[in-house]
Amino acid sequence: MNFSEMIAKTESDVLDLEKGFDFDVHKLCYNSNSVEQNDIFFAIRGFKKDGNVYIKDALDKGAKAVFTDSDPGFTDSRLYKVKDCRKMMAIMSNVFYGYPSRKMIMTGVTGTNGKTTVSSIINFVLQSIGRKTGLIGTNGNYINKRFIKTEHTTPESIELNSLLKEMADEGVEYAVMEVSSHSLALNRVYGLDFDAAVFTNLTPEHLDFHDTMEEYFRAKKILFDSMKRIGEKDIKPAVIYNCNDDYGAKIVSSSEAERISYGFGCGTYSAKNLEMDMNGMSFEVLVPHNGETIDRMKINTHLTGKFNVQNILAAIAALKTLKVDYKSITKHIEEFEPVEGRFNRIKLSNGASAIIDYSHTPDSLLKTITTIKEIFDESKSKGRIITVFGCGGNRDKQKRPLMGNIAVMNSDEVVITSDNPRDEEPMAIIEDIKAGISQDNYSVEENRELAIKKAVEISKNGDVILIAGKGHETYQEIKGVKYHLSDKEIAQKYS
User: Fold this and answer.
1) Could you give the CA distance from residue 45 to residue 50 in angstroms, rounded to a whole number?
2) Are 170 and 132 in contact (CB under 8 A)?
3) Residues 165-179 pLDDT 10s
4) On the chain, which terminus has fewer CB atoms closer than 10 Å, C or N?
């Protein structure tokens, strides 16, 4: 594709361009290290580096056009000033890769917690009924069942559109994507053609990036505001929201698409009669039928916990929007296994259990411990809850004391440890956690492996050890280096 053709297809109100020479575009880049002859370079400002510093480097390497929304301090005929460089990068990558999101049914899932489970259920059911699918999210990207490793929940717009094109080329009919607040605020998903958008919940997270909950909410709301009343595909666009969440109705308030809700005691899809234990649960779902709400679906699942009831309800609503019948939904949800790192149970030789869970926010940690308590209550267990957790470095510091308080107030024993300290000192993070603690049922072990070992050694028959924060991750990041570390492997090692 040539440069002038790409420019002609962009939105004129985004651009402030002068006509330049034409050329055949080789590829799009935002990292000057990958620039080659006839590339386009986007000088975006990253979290650690500003792409504008590398404009001359990109030009020297053969970039024929450079886009920036800053003043680089020099002039060059190959420089193009735009209002928003990230938005321009999203628009042009969409054009360059042939608008791939228009070639499949797109479902976006956003919220603080539950995105991975909801998107994985949707993807699993679609695959189980014979559809070709693509999945983009925290645990990796998939084209059908082929795994593609990822560094971000939602990739930058160039990689994202390239991945969607690869999916379209391989015949993918349905793509399911976790949509992070970062990706919305930074225009990574700008211009994508979503057909269904799902909201799970909103609790304090990423406030190091968004500053306030209102900013965090506004970033999430971008997805729902972008949804159209009438789509161009064979599906009626829909926005699906959690009616038990304070932000649920607000987040879809400006959307033109059909609004569908779910929850306990409210919503288009409502759950009741929940029974659960450590191995799974069953419940009924009130579902719409011929203009009325009737008791229609009985769900049996290997997942457990009230938070997973809401995740399943969200998936059911999305799947019905995607025209999957109730019989197929119930059948394949029963076959679905828990996502890696989400409430995964390991039986220990002493009769205790270890739960590996990704809960790394105050809300998710509380929900996970509460689920264990509820299971104890139903089974009349007298076991103890032993929680092992830490908080990540270079991330929202406000949640550290909150998580410390939640852990000690809701567990019998707590071992505070390290969790991806990154560039911070582990003990400094632990001191931040301790600042929220007002009782003495905790100990500190900075080394995460030794912390898990300690929890296993003090556990007894019937106890549950919650190892929280890392879930599916198999590394510990310290001073820019990732070392192999798997909570699951360590729990099994000392069982």
Assistant:
1) 4
2) yes
3) 999 999 999 999 999
4) N
